[in-house]
Design brief:
Elements (H helix, E strand, L loop, with lengths): L15 E6 L6 H17 L4 E3 L11 H5 L9 H13 L2 E10 L5 E8 L5 E6 L5 E3 L5 E3 L11 E6 L2 E5 L8 H9 L4 E3 L6 H19 L2 E4 L3 E3 L5 E3 L3 E3 L5 E4 L5 E6 L3 H9 L2 H4 L10
Parallel strand pairs: 1-2, 2-3, 9-10, 10-11
Antiparallel strand pairs: 1-16, 3-4, 4-5, 6-7, 8-9, 11-14, 12-13, 14-15
């Protein structure tokens, strides 16, 4: 009688991530301390990667005051502290963004992906700048301070797979998310400092829509609460899966929260709804 052997394969471990919902102020040294503490808490909680919000180092609408605290990346104390903490704690980081001076003297709203050795693997400069006048009387002119980026970025080999990078207002431009998905992204990060009126109206629905359209995970670490410069941000750091289900909503709670990202869901959902494969070029609309 012939014998047979059944081989059992253990399931692949599901990456655990952490999100830091912060209330960044006008002092980069204080922000650096808060970020280092968050990195330690994320690592101790078993996270392989930590995601932080837009403007994690300095949030100040007083442009003149802020200008004196913005440095080139190689001189930025927040970035240096985060790189050292990532190395010490052996954890990957997505620093949603910090304001840095670029080589031409302009200021960029720049995100950084840092690996567990503390090396910068990739950067992304915010493409779409927030220039609006809100019904509340708030007026924002990011283009008066920042230089827009021009390149979409996907980072291979992170603990969550291929990671697409965006920042805040980019959320309103689905073509960018589609381009990142077509380039192989499994997860797209959307670090933000959303205003309260736009957050209440659009934050969750847009994040879930981008997850559904692109068939991938959305990880959105956000600023929350009343800041030193007087602005108020919406919070609700969120993780959505490729089916659009919300896995995590931090509401207004500041600090660290955890979620698990199952890469197998990306292929499963895209197999059920292969919208990316069905995309076709569309010419100019016919006007009648």
């Amino acid at each position: 009688m012939a014998s047979s052997t059944t081989c059992w394969r253990l399931p692949e471990p599901v990456p655990r991530i952490a999100l830091f919902q912060s209330n960044t102020g006008i002092d980069p040294s204080a922000s650096a301390k808060n970020l280092v503490a968050a990195i330690g808490e994320a690592a101790e909680g078993g996270a392989e990667m930590l995601f932080t919000p837009e403007m994690s180092g300095l949030l100040d609408r007083d442009a003149k005051r802020a200008a004196g605290r913005i440095r080139a990346p190689e001189e930025d104390l927040v970035l240096a502290a985060c790189r050292e903490a990532a190395r010490a704690r052996s954890i990957w980081l997505h620093i949603g963004s910090i304001a840095v001076r670029s080589g031409d003297g302009m200021i960029a709203n720049r995100g950084f992906v840092i690996d567990s050795s503390g090396d910068v693997r990739a950067t992304y400069d915010k493409i779409h700048l927030f220039d609006v006048d809100l019904p509340t009387g708030e007026s924002w002119r990011e283009s008066a301070v920042y230089r827009a980026g021009g390149k979409a970025v996907v980072v291979e080999g992170t603990p969550v797979g291929a990671l697409g990078l965006t920042i805040c207002y980019d959320l309103r431009f689905p073509a960018l998310f589609a381009r990142l998905a077509e380039a192989g992204a499994d997860v797209i990060a959307v670090p933000a400092a959303f205003t309260v009126p736009t957050g209440r109206a659009h934050w969750e629905v847009l994040l879930r829509a981008r997850a559904i359209e692109a068939g991938l995970f959305i990880v959105a670490a956000a600023q929350a609460g009343t800041h030193q410069d007087g602005r108020v941000t919406y919070g609700h750091s969120l993780v959505a899966d490729p089916w659009g289900e919300v896995l995590l909503d931090m509401e207004e709670t500041k600090g660290i929260a955890f979620a698990e990202i199952d890469p197998a869901q990306v292929g499963a959902v895209r197999g059920r709804v292969p919208a990316l494969e069905h995309r076709r070029p569309i010419g100019e609309p016919v006007r009648r």
